[in-house]
Amino acid sequence: MKNLILAPAFFYTAERLKPFVVSHAKAGVDAKIVFLIEKEKPEFNRFYEDYPSVEVCVMPEASEFFKVRWQKVMALPLAYSWRVLHPVKTIEDALGCTGSGWPYRFLHIALKRYLMAYRLIERQYPDIEKIMLTDTRDVFFQRDPFSYIEGGLYCGLESESIRHSPINSQWINKLYPEDLYESIADQPTSCSGVTFGDRESIIRYLEWMCFETLTHFNKICFCPGYDQGIHNKLVYAGKMPVELHFQENGVSPIVATMAAADLNEFDLQQDCLRTKSGDLPAVVHQYQLHPELDQMVNRLYF
Hints:
The chain has 302 residues and is α/β, with parallel strands linked by helices.
């Protein structure tokens, strides 16, 4: 296959990911799924048997090195020392660190997955044409999203602005100056959990995600969520040399992002979720936050 779905499944059971896999098969998605897991898990073997488009890649660096608060506090001087010894001033500096074990010890999985994705795509998938970077436990497919993807980066939008989202505002304000925040605060929040693109655009995006992550390394050690703050900075105020295609929520035929959405923005039917205009979004993300939608998924795919 020429298309790849890179799907972090760290710390999940195979059973929890059944809607992702079953819906992928039913929707006829023309792409290989590569689940990233932290260790060998025998229960994932059944995916090999039943779904030939699924592969599993073990990434031991995903494991938590410091599991409790006191360990993290004690480890902070080591993190600061690493940052001083490895100044990140260019993208090349950042990419040189993606092969090192040290950054993985101090970054939350939500951030270090981008370092892993860059290494994996560069080394193991040189012939892939289109890529989907995605969350897994709260995603299902309704049709093939790759039929819509051409050149550039495709980013899903949420149903509220950055300014009206306290948590997204917090992530951006922690990392960036106030004037940058004000310049993008009235834009719709772009969700970092599902991003599509041709291979070159995804590589450029991951390069910048790695650069920003390691530039702000000392501010985000062990912290979740900051990947979305970085993502929004990049798509609205970054320097990425890629064409951007924003997917308006409730309108896009590619992705529906449900976290901040009112279910009334869509048309929930017995066996699918449609836009008000009748389109069938190819990918539905964060469905679990809506009980009626969650029940539909459980009925169809478990």
